[in-house]
Amino acid sequence: MNTPNKSGWKPEVNAPEDGMHAGPETVTGNRALMLDEPLIFELADNMATGVDLPEPASNAPSRLGGMERADAFGLPGLSEPEAVRHYTRLSRQNYAIDLGLFPLGSCTMKHNPRLNEKVARMPGFADCHPLAPVHTVQGALGVIHELGEWLCKLTGMPAVAMSPKAGAHGELCGILAIRAALEARGDARKVVLCPESAHGTNPATAAFAGYEVEDIPATGEGRVDFDALKARLGPDVAAVMITNPNTCGLFERDFRKIADAVHEAGGFVYCDGANFNAIVGRVRPGDLGVDAMHINLHKTFSTPHGGGGPGSGPVVFSEALAPFAPLPFVEQRGDSFHLVEEETAKADHEQSFGRMTAFHGQMGMFTRALAYMLSHGADGLKQVADDAVLNANYVLRGLDDLLHAPYASSGPCMHEALFGDDGFEGGLSTLDLAKSLIDEGYHPMTMYFPLVVHGAMLVEPTETESKASLDQFVAAFRNAAERAKAGDESMMQSPYYAPRRRLDETQAARKPVLAWQEPDET
Ligand SMILES: *Cc1c(COP(=O)(O)O)cnc(C)c1O
After folding, report:
1. What is the distance in A from the centroid of ligand 1 to the CA of 2?
2. Residue 363 is inside which H or E element, if any?
3. Given the CA of residue 272, which atom of ligand 1 is nearest to it?
4. What's the CATH number where 418 sits?
5. In a mutational test of the pocket of ligand 1, which residue from 272, 279, 445 has the highest number of ligand atoms less than 8 Å from its CB?
6. How much is the pTM?
7. Which of 250, 296, 414, 452 to mutate to test the pocket of ligand 1 (most atoms within 8 A of CB)?
8. What share of the chain is helix, strand, coil (3-state, %, to 5)?
9. How many domains does one find in the chain?
């Protein structure tokens, strides 16, 4: 069925030279696939309305003090079914974890158990207001406190800040605590070291906090080069930021050695904990000498993210950094929970670097994450990590005979499998393979990251995919990889079956058009 519309908008029909989309030249209004959906403004009639309110009595006194609107203000008017259909049709153009495997590496797009969603929607949590008096939200504060205790226990760290709103925000929180600790001892160190394979947020965080960033090289097997790192340490190095497991999908085996060397040189160790999913229940970062680490609740402990779901990035701290953690935080006193704010902080918190957010956190993420932890238990969380690693290795071994897998000979990977574009023919690139995967029915993997591998393809299947689901994904990926290695030119035009073909991604990023403008009538 085609979309009825009132503004003269016409669906775009792919021209016959597009090959696979060559359909009937005249639109019948009955296409089975509704590939094109107009903007709601194009669809609607500005005079229509979905509600039927009585006109105000003509003699009713105005209570708006002369501020009444004089003209129509151009909101699109649709009936309720028209509005519902518009958004439902749009939702069908979206790829989602609830539709299929989502292979984005480094992002950990994992299944969100429906139990979490149910808990997060309980009115006591969902309707909680950040300014509600503390005695009325004891249950919510109790959840934040209990979640914090779980995070400390799982990481083996003594303190946690729950307020950061995402991983990158957590990084900033950790680095600001490190800066406060250095300032407290009158130490003006200026340099933060990041490995070459670091997530872009690491150097960005350090630079944002006013540090100079220097690269640490990687070894041929994809890990931090310990000797090069050690040689660079000195009185100017404030901290190192290391992701573990790293973005090549490998565990940093020298982490403890690195942490000891950094501490000996007077610096701090920041661990990017975005990949905690792969080691939770198996390794406690506190045992590895970490001073601060953010945890992406939205990666390790489910909770939706990407394209709209808010994240949450609590940061765990060592004894050395705990006094510098941000306010406010939840404290249990006897049976009740308190929010320690600037005004109420006791002397032992006066070294805090300050506050990061207006309010205390992401309640919806906290409830989901705690529901996830309580329903799995500590053993279940270890199983999550084991299965995530098993699934990634299944994908690695299902493709490494066909695709260049630069670190496959270093042994098993952690939670993500990394490939490069060596051997692609006919000028085909990782981008072409990614676009072809869309035609295979999958969201593409992470591409061109990490930077240390040419044409990188980073695949993270997560723990909840079944063997059948992985087999289907590997088969689709093999098909695309075989075509790329055979130099199949048609890949350059892919995707063929998506609502939109190849977009100008540079234009889209540099000149985004985010607001609808009424077309010029003249
Ligand atoms: C996702 C990720 C981040 C950033 O986390 P956000 O929640 O997206 O801000 C940082 N480092 C690594 C390794 C990541 O995968």
Report:
1. 41
2. helix 363-399
3. 11
4. 3.90.1150.10
5. 272
6. 0.88
7. 296
8. 35, 10, 50
9. 2
Q: pLDDT of the chain along its 522 residues, tens only?
A: 344 455 555 545 444 444 444 444 444 444 444 567 888 988 888 777 888 888 878 888 888 888 888 887 778 889 889 999 999 988 888 888 999 999 999 989 999 999 999 999 999 999 999 899 999 999 999 999 999 999 999 999 999 999 999 999 999 999 999 999 999 999 999 999 999 889 999 999 999 999 999 999 999 889 999 999 999 999 999 999 999 999 999 999 999 999 999 999 999 999 999 999 999 999 999 999 999 999 999 999 998 886 556 789 999 999 999 999 999 999 999 999 998 887 766 666 789 999 999 888 789 999 999 999 999 999 999 999 999 999 999 999 999 999 999 999 878 999 999 999 999 999 999 999 999 999 999 999 999 999 899 999 999 999 999 999 999 999 999 999 999 999 999 999 999 988 888 988 899 899 998 888 777 765
* Environment class of 83 (CB within 10 Å of its CB; exposed 0-12, middle 13-18, buried 19+): middle
Pocket test for ligand 1, best of 107, 172, 201 (most atoms within 8 A of CB): 201
Say which residues have a Cβ less than 8 Å from residue 432's Cβ, sequence separation at least 6: 484, 491, 492, 494
Does residue 487 sit within a domain?
yes
For residues 315 and 241, state if they share a domain: yes
To which residue do tokens 């540099």 refer? 510
Residues 359 and 255 in one domain: yes
Q: Are residues 120 and 238 both part of a single domain?
A: yes
User: Which residue has its alpha carbon closest to ligand 1 atom 6?
Assistant: 167
Taking CA atoms only, the protein residue closest to ligand 1 atom 14 is 274
For residue 419, the number of C-alpha atoms closer than 13 Å in the C-beta half-sphere is: 31
Q: Is the CB of 166 under 6 A from ligand 1?
A: yes
Q: Is the CB of 168 under 6 A from ligand 1?
A: yes
